[in-house]
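Protocol step 4 of 5: obtain the predicted structure for the target chain.
Materials: sequence only (see below). No template structures provided, no constraints applied. The aim of this step is simply to have a reference model before the mutagenesis design in step 5. Sequence pasted as it appears in the construct record:
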Amino acid sequence: IQQLVDDYPVDTIAKRFRYDAALVSALMDMEEDILEGLKSKNLDDYFKGPFTVVIKESCDGMGDVSEKHGCGPAVPEKAVRFSFTLMSISVTHERASIRIFEENKPNSELCCKPLCLMLADESDHETLTAILSPLVAEREAMKDSVLTLDMAGIPRTFKFIFRGTGYDEKLVREV
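Step 4 output (structure tokens):
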């Protein structure tokens, strides 16, 4: 359910999505791309995996949001966004790694999936650490796990490799 900014309590400083749920949603949105990628590489469309997904994480300051919203009272705070991009998906077939998907525009807003939007200054390390720590813990748990998703009626397994190449220089120490 979509909510308006006015629907959130005044003291809300962050909106965060569960990392695993966001990855499931992103992969399900790409079901057609994954199946087409298998076909384009002459692989059976009933291939179960494992699929290796490379994820680029990004965390950057968005500046003073009081200048970036429409109507309503001025918001005297800055904002920070933590997001991810599915960079590539590959499979191992006959001892070779075969890439079935690669993001053509990795820096595009269209492929960037937000995980957390927060009203905080990027130099406020205490607040950033408090808000981002659960995301970091979720990412660490997923590094050694396998996700099974039903795509086109077939259970397929996915494993993840995380790359933190899109961090703002000021935030590298924190995340």
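Step 4 remarks: Residues 5-168 form one domain. The mean pLDDT is 82.
Proceed to step 5.
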